[in-house]
């Protein structure tokens, strides 16, 4: 089987984007800012295809993400800021520099060591904090997870006294402590901002515990949301098939269908 060379197709793709930018009224007026939401949406659609293990859809969504990369690079080139060639060269240089165990003589044995070395190299590139580089746009659960993960690499984490061994017991106890503080503030009718703070502390501690369980909280919550959506859709299907309005159904009826869906 002849090995494929995607360079020809890639060049054709880039030229198509440039032509659209020139000849299409919509493409012509776009800016980095106006395309911002498009890039975010295409990324989420790609994640959805991955979650559903829909490889045919994933192929399409990766193409949409690639379009955004080429489009933004084209705009930057028009404004004499940088080119697509520079984007590729910069990323290539970064990959080589951050993988000295692959492209150099450094010896690294496992993935954890790779991640620690990656953070060290990024710090050497001029970042002032280990938390630099975490996008503000990240969903809050994932952002909390990434900040805790980066802080942990410096040794700032729950460990058994006098050792480097992780200790998850006080992490779970912290959840119970934050839950009790939230409960007390609600019962005492504290100010809304105070209750919001306590709820945030509780969520942050749950995220921290998920890290000890080696579970990404964003993935876990997305999975639960999918389950909820599936089961609620079953209630809607029942109402539709029986010419019922959801508002007319009793909670007991809904619970029965919900429990059937769980099975």
Molecular structure report:
The chain is mainly α and about 260 residues long. It folds into three domains: about 80 residues, MazG-like (Helix Hairpins, Orthogonal Bundle), CATH 1.10.287.1080; about 80 residues, Helix Hairpins (Orthogonal Bundle), CATH 1.10.287.1080; about 45 residues. It has twelve helices and no strands. The longest helix has 25 residues. The two termini are about 45 Å apart.
Listing every helix as H and every strand as E from the N terminus to the C terminus, the arrangement reads HHHHHHHHHHHH
**How much β-strand is present in the residues?**
under 5%
Q: Outline, from the CA principal axes? A: globular
The total tally of domains equals 3
Overall pLDDT metric: 91
CATH class division of the largest domain: Mainly Alpha
Summed up, the helix count is 12
Residue share in helices? 55-70%
- Residue stretches low in confidence (pLDDT < 50, at least 5 long) are none
**Strand tally:** 0
Q: What is the fourth-level CATH superfamily of the largest domain?
A: MazG-like
SS content category: mainly alpha
From the N-terminal CA to the C-terminal CA, the straight-line distance is 47 Å
The main sheet comes to: none
